[in-house]
Design goal:
α3 packs parallel to α8 and α10 packs antiparallel against α11. 81% of the residues lie in helices and 0% in strands. It has 14 helices and no strands. Its main location: membrane.
Length: 360
């Protein structure tokens, strides 16, 4: 449960783990929901979080990571907010068309950029903004087909966007503010997320599907894919917190759209799903936008790191000048002291010398 020996290696590993596990769980859930008819997505997510918490509890028990308690009210609020955002995402899909739901997911990136700019004073360069715009246009071309709008669905989508953005920003800021790892934060917030969805899940699923999760026919294949989905979800949840902690909420959303493109490509190539040149062009534009975003983000982070290292070196040298007389002398500090001494009143020795000159 460690997060890598080096920053770059750890980030690449987190991104790779997130992509692989997310694509795997989409394929597993597609078989579970579309083929086997288990369409209780919110309840399934609550089971995911419950299994994740149990897995992390075992990992903590065998000392794979250290439990680090911090502000309980912050953890509880964060966990409940995460659970609410997941429930609202499922409601948004249920009360809106697929196209409008995709637009809701696309709106999360500009909303996150706006919130971080206004409240966290974070700056996004023009190059980053352009690459994000290209990404959103590409994903929109590839995924948005119909745009049926209704008032209730639009209101739910609005709350979905806000809660998702705030929850992901908090995932990043809490880790930095309280100096906790992604594993420690996930371990402490999982019970609140799972509890929120365990309580609300059956009601939401009943409203969306007109079926009862407790009266479903749980045969061997359904149970097998539920267990498999829960096991994969441990990696999904862990990598989500890891990616947001190591990068940013915006980068995590960009990664999410990469997963969407990969799932679409998987369906076109392997499952022979119908597609058009519009879908292909959209995916290509989105991937090009992701490449630009990755390049610009990396180059700007390297530039910032270089500036920070220079400032740190200058500060160390300055501190050394104040403590080391030799270095201070080389820097002119001693000269400044000599100038102060020359401007001071003359000493007794100078006065006596002056008197001898006058008598002579």
């Amino acid at each position: 449960m460690t997060e890598g020996p080096g920053p770059h290696l750890g980030t690449v590993g987190a991104l790779s783990l997130s992509v692989i596990s997310s694509v795997a769980i989409v394929i597993c859930n597609k078989a579970l929901i579309s083929t086997l008819g288990f369409c209780f997505a919110t309840t399934l997510t609550s089971w995911h979080l419950l299994v994740t918490f149990c897995s992390l509890h075992v990992a903590q028990w065998v000392k794979l990571f250290e439990h680090k308690p911090f502000d309980s009210r912050t953890v509880m609020g964060f966990g409940i907010l995460n659970g609410v955002s997941i429930g609202l995402l499922n409601l948004s899909l249920g009360f809106n068309s697929v196209g409008f739901y995709q637009m809701t997911k696309l709106a999360i990136i500009p909303c996150t950029v706006f919130l971080e700019t206004v409240f966290l004073r974070k700056q996004f360069s023009k190059r980053i903004q352009l690459s994000l715009l290209m990404l959103l246009v590409g994903v929109g071309i590839a995924t948005v087909t119909d745009m049926q709008l209704n008032l209730l669905g639009a209101v739910i989508s609005l709350f979905t966007i806000v809660t998702t953005c705030v929850a992901q920003i908090m995932t990043n800021t809490i880790q930095k503010r309280f100096k906790v790892s992604s594993t420690q934060l996930l371990y402490q917030s999982c019970p609140y997320q799972a509890g929120t969805l365990l309580f609300a899940g059956p009601f939401l699923d009943a409203a969306l599907t007109n079926q009862n999760v407790f009266s479903f026919d749980y045969n061997f294949f359904v149970l097998f894919f539920i267990v498999l989905s829960c096991l994969i979800s441990v990696s999904v949840n862990f990598s989500t917190f890891l990616v947001i902690g190591k990068t940013s909420p915006v980068t995590y959303q960009v990664l999410g759209h990469l997963k969407t493109c990969l799932v679409l490509a998987f369906g076109y190539i392997l499952l022979k799903n119908p597609f058009s040149w519009r879908n292909v062009c959209g995916i290509l534009v989105a991937v090009f936008g992701m490449m630009l975003y990755s390049y610009y983000s990396y180059s700007e982070s390297q530039q910032k790191m270089s500036i920070d290292n220079t400032l740190t070196s200058n500060q160390i040298l300055k501190d050394k000048e104040l403590t080391d007389p030799l270095v201070a002398a080389e820097s002119g500090v001693v000269n400044m002291l000599e100038e102060d001494a020359s401007n001071a009143p003359q000493s007794l020795w100078n006065k006596s010398t002056l008197g001898k000159d006058l008598h002579a």
